[in-house]
């Protein structure tokens, strides 16, 4: 590149506006004439521009040679950026799963407490509207729930004690009837074949005696953990009933100021969805238990009440629980009352479950939770693989809560004005009065809103 030559001092003097040769004598001046300086700047501008452009061209050429990223196509760079961010998220999820797996007892206790509060918590604001204080109302609701559970367990125990001898007698005669049916029924087995199967079962028990003993001790250890978790869950549930609103406000304050209102709204909507899910699930479980219990009573199967209670609790595991508890009821009917009774019980269970799955569940659950059946199946399967029965129980409410929270957050983001949605973190809000009002609402809690709803007040832990 050819550089322009700078003008001489005499040339600069000639460039002065309105000047002529000899009009300005530079040798007689101690300081340069401002007009001369301006003229020099104008004359040197092309030289400066070309020098800067030349330096930039050299810099670009050198940078292209030194930086290998500029040689990589943009789609590849974008894919790599998404890939490493995805790996970071996957690592964070893996760490969270590892932490939860180490704290299984605490996590399950917390989940059970939340489910209990979602079921009985709405009664606390109703008692408060009757003039009762927060702590007495929470204590009364908590004690009522505990007494209800103890009453059900007491009834089950009394039924087991009262019908125990009859069960042993009926089971012995039932096994004899099953053997007769195997000989005279469509299978047509011979006595030596039946005895061979019985000998194989006995040999298996003898060979696995050590494993079964270890499993028995493991059951006792598991029972101890269950008792500890139950006490922790009850303790946590009481404080959620008593101080749930205060705990929730503290949790919301952990978010950045600009995100508190969105977090508060998403959390309250998720809690409403969880309350609706638990209420609907309890109603469906009660209908299942009542229907199957009536079938068992009609057929004359012993332990109808304990089996109905098992069906009730089994309904809390979607899809799988009802099938397992129903099969157990049919098996008891087979052993104690024979094949005909077992077939009648099985038909009754299928009718009740079809009515529940195709009529009651869509009608009840659609009002509070909108989760596709495929999502339910996948969630139950994944939860069972990751955490066993407890994971299967927790999977569906967790999916319902996350679905509601994400819909709330994404819907809110779409409704935000552009200047708020695109503002950097920490930037002042264009609507400070709205932020102040939202912060006051978070501080005060939803007491006024719960009072306005009348009987529909809810407690948010």
TrEMBL record:
Pfam families: AI-2E_transport. It is a multi-pass membrane protein. InterPro entries: AI-2E-like (IPR002549). GO terms for biological process: transmembrane transport. Residues 452-461 have a biased composition (Gly residues). Keywords: Cell membrane, Membrane, Transmembrane, Transmembrane helix, Transport. Residues 1-29, 419-461 are annotated as: Disordered. GO terms for cellular component: plasma membrane. The chain crosses the membrane at residues 82-100, 106-125, 137-162, 216-241, 277-299, 305-324, 331-353, 373-406. Residues 431-447 have a biased composition (Basic and acidic residues). It is found in: Cell membrane. Belongs to the autoinducer-2 exporter (AI-2E) (TC 2.A.86) family. This is AI-2E family transporter.
